[in-house]
Amino acid sequence: MKKCLVISLMVISLILLSPISLKAENDKYLLPDAFLTTLTTHIDNAVVGYYGELTQYALYDTEIISIERTQTGRVFSFTVVIKIFPFEKAHNYIGEDTLTLEVVPSGVSVTSYKHQKYK
Known about the structure:
The structure is a single chain. The chain is an alpha+beta fold. It has one domain. Helices cover 39% and strands 31% of the residues. The chain is built from two helices and six strands; from the N terminus they run ααββββββ. The strands form two sheets. A four-stranded antiparallel beta sheet has the order 1-2-5-6, covered by helices on one side. A two-stranded antiparallel ribbon has the order 3-4. The longest helix is centred in the first third of the chain and has 25 residues, at 2-26.
């Protein structure tokens, strides 16, 4: 009886867990999109700080340029560089903005904001 119960639980576990892990493996944007989503509030605040108002940008156009640990070893402190492409009205791009963020367990801060106008 115990053997049947254990086997049944294993089969149910495999059935329930397999689709989730397969979906995650097949979606190359899953992790970057989730990461950018967590940074959105900080990006928005930096954009408001630079332009004086919330200027539009699209998360799907946002590029993660680099993610580096600030120290060697398994330290949870990162420097993240991203690039956004702010626009007005119907995607009239006004330039490209490069943001550097410090990501640590206690929070996120924007340490650099550089705007380059389109010519």
